[in-house]
Amino acid sequence: MTDLATKPPTILVIDDDAEVRYSLGRVLSSKKYQVIEAASGELGVAAVKKGPLPDLIFLDIRMSGMSGIEALQHIRSVNPKQLVVLMTAFGTAQTAIEAMKYGAFDYIMKPFDPAKVLTIAENALKAHADMRAVVNYKPTINSDDYKEGIVGSSPVMQDVFKVIGQVTASDVTVMITGESGTGKELVARSIWKHSHRAAKPFIAVNCAAIPDNLIESELFGHEKGSFTGAANQRLGKFELCDGGTIFLDEIGDMALATQTKILRVLQQGEIQRVGGTETIKVDVRILAATNKDLEEMVKAKTFREDLYYRLNVVRIRMPALRERVADVPQILDFCLQNLLKQKKTRVSKVSPEALAVLTRYRWPGNVRELENVVYRSAVIAQGDTILLKDLPAEVRETVGGIVPTVTTVDSAPPFETARVASAESAALATAQVVAESIASGEPALSIPHALDFLHRELSLQSEPILERLEREMIVRVLAATEGNLLKASERLGMTRATLRKRVDELGLKI
Ligand SMILES: Nc1ncnc2c1ncn2[C@@H]1O[C@H](COP(=O)(O)OP(=O)(O)OP(=O)(O)O)[C@@H](O)[C@H]1O
């Protein structure tokens, strides 16, 4: 494969039409690409098999003998990551769909517009260079270690895990609050799985999704003929869940009349079916969730105060994803690994530029939105890496244009430069998070966040992490103590002699 830093990229043109090969060759050579030609699908495949692999292939779909699609399959079996642009004279949507389905990077219609040919080649080769730059991608987690699907090691999530552990031993009612998509249901399931009720059912009821006139029947069941349409007796969720755990999601949307009945279950452990007179004992643990401000609702008398206190025995507040950006890379790897296992993608890596944008985005839809963005980007991505260009426009655009372009076809930087640029973009990203959090009156990044960030960034660099940290801290402490070695050594926790020695060894000037 061509070394982009030194040699011009090679492009293989496979077409049985000599005129097309000639004109395409001229256009591409004008940009100093090295063009190789093959006059049939068979010859093109042979050239790829023989090697060296070209950086890009322009491949005609309709050829006598082996078709372009057939050739593409052979080429993919030699090099699954090969970048291919399909060419077609039949510009129907169908051919475009076929081309992309078979994993082409793009397709182009004949007759060609030379400028378009060059743009496509440039974009393809940039994508190629970006993918090659991501050689050292190390997933942050192994999804097999997260059977319950709650990923995250940020301090705020550690607190959540602790409370989950504390409430599993008892039957205490738990109120889980937080914005939509933060993982409230996942937490409820985790509490249930770790509790002594794990062998009995877990039933989730979305109170907002069921109309007011049906919710009571849904929860408590009904007797035959109790209302129009009640042709038979029906058991409600509470009876079906006997011995288990019921998760009342969006409880803030529950009508006052139903709230009264929930209070009765909590106080007396009994229900009555709609239209029935019999009192039925049920043994159900209640977990509830809301993204509404229940305190405000209590004040406005739209939520019963007594029920509020009954539900709110223990509260777990799920932090918004923007409060735990350090978890984004882990959740991202978790989603990618799951998609890989389900064979929904071949993507297993993310470029540093894309990651920088993902950690800067505000995630109004929280983890659910991140999952969705990862899936969409993985579907769009060619090869095995999500690049900046693969992220949905709304994510790239909301974040703004500070992410530097790392490579261009004419002056592709060597790998080291690409990594430095990536580190810079990640640093800019974090600076932006801090600036935004200060501007919005939220606390700026905490020490654990800052350490997580440093860990990630310093891991990308060749200098040993501790040496870099030591150097930076010594410089800062010396500056703060105005070069006083004794005071600085006390702050750093080393003897004056050791500090003197380290200053010399690290080549620092006092
Ligand atoms: N920490 C996490 N790690 C991995 N996946 C997560 C995490 N938190 C949430 N998810 C995923 O995000 C999606 C939304 O989670 P969940 O339904 O639990 O959120 P929610 O807060 O209950 O949302 P809503 O308020 O809209 O009902 C789910 O697909 C879930 O698997």
UniProtKB/TrEMBL annotation:
Domain Sigma-54 factor interaction residue range list: 150-379
Molecular function terms from GO: ATP binding; sequence-specific DNA binding
Boundaries of every Response regulatory domain copy: 10-125
Alphabetical keyword list: Activator, ATP-binding, Cytoplasm, DNA-binding, Nitrogen fixation, Nucleotide-binding, Phosphoprotein, Repressor, Transcription, Transcription regulation, Two-component regulatory system
GO terms under biological process: phosphorelay signal transduction system; regulation of DNA-templated transcription
One GO CC term on file: cytoplasm
Keyword Cytoplasm: yes
Subcellular location: Cytoplasm
Record PTM 4-aspartylphosphate, positions in chain: D60
Superkingdom to which the source organism belongs: Bacteria
Keyword ATP-binding in record: yes
Name of the protein in question: DNA-binding transcriptional regulator NtrC
Provenance organism: Rariglobus hedericola
